[in-house]
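Quarterly update from the structural biology core.
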Amino acid sequence: MLPSSTVENYLKHIYLQQLTLPAGTVLVPMGALAAAIGVTPGSATTMVKALSESGLVHYEPYAGVRLTPAGERLAGLVIRRHRLVELFLVQVMGMSWDEVHDEAEQLEHVVSERLIERMDEMLGHPEVDPHGDPIPDSEGIIAHREMHSLLTCPVGVPLAVTRVADQDASFLRFLESSGLKPGQQLRVQARDEAADSVRVEREGGEELTIGARAASKLLVEVIASILLICVLSAVPALAQAPAGPPPAPFEITDNSFFVEEAFNQDPGIFQNLATVLREEGGRWFLGFTQEWPLRSKKHQLSYSVGVASAGDGTGAGDILLHYRYQVTDEDPGLPAISPRVSLILPVGDERRGLGYGSWGLQFNLPVSKQVGNYYLHGNAGFTWLPSAPTDHFQSGGNLRAASDVALASPFVAGSVIYRLNPKLNVLMEAVVDWQEGVVGPELTDRETVVILSPGARWGWTWGFRQVVVGAAVPFTRVAGETSAGVLGYFSYELPFRD
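Predicted structure, tokenized:
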């Protein structure tokens, strides 16, 4: 028999009260439990005795109560349902984070485990809810992270708001209007015990003073990402640039042109990407990529095909099959990291400049991090061709037989994207590719190709669908000569299932 909503509420509140107990204390006082649930101590005691007889709690008269392992598991599953429902209402239903708590209080007792697991999969197996509270796993186990409040954290060091320990709607609206939602970055400048207040500096240098009671409910972590520190050190002017309004999530995130982002497709959504590039001299390229999530956001499959102009007309290029794994999702102290490996199928004619002429592999490591109104992306990888042909080079007027050679071409890339408004971004991308190629029978050479590309992108979103268009003017420098081109971009994301 399934537990009633009353039983679930008691288990949940005992669990949450246990998390707030001082070190060395193991029992939740009955008065505190009764106040949390909103009943009299006598009613709470009667219910706790019944739970004790069911083996869900350990009760000590006149001392308090704690959950048994069985009670902890049931409580964790109730909390899991509550927090997944909150996140679903915010991300999918478009509700505000200050209105979903009461709705989740009702739905947590009636939603089925099957539906909860489907929500979890659709949301990409999230780790926290909209308020930063950790979401228990399917066994009801919560991963605890050590956090400080603004009253106990270090002073003067970079911090990120990670959790809000109060679901009161008016308090949440205050945090939103003050730019103190989870994900926001700040520093504690000073604490005034006499005034019972804390002064913080938000991103961009703006200062704000809040009361100690509010500060105690804001949990933060020290930003310690080595990669983020390296990125900020590489672009000090960007890191010190004054920001406008408090940063919010970008509405366009996976629509760069030359530099790969570290964001896989959300479950149930696939993306179609088309790019057309025209170079000086009239040569043009048309590419198409389609990206599909594989059951969850962790795994993504995609393919790329293309056609290009050649000296005697047009032709198809090689086909690339891609797999990408989402190692980390972006959070306040960690960038998104999503390595990719691609299989090159040599269907194009390399003699006409339409392919590599060899099967091969390509590896890339994309890293992405938001810094205020900027997004920073970095790539590093290489292309490996184990059997590039060399037998079409002539020697003394005749074709000379020669063995195939292996080629390896490393590359690095980076981009800075600035948000003019949620739907309009400008970007600067840079790519350096050390391309190794065949220059004679069994003879290779390497040339450096540098691309610098300013551009812009604009998006429209409705429901689960998004269209993004973009344009750029890439400048390419090879062998001491620079040429310019024009690039057009189109993306359409849509669900592949209801």
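The chain has ten helices and 26 strands.
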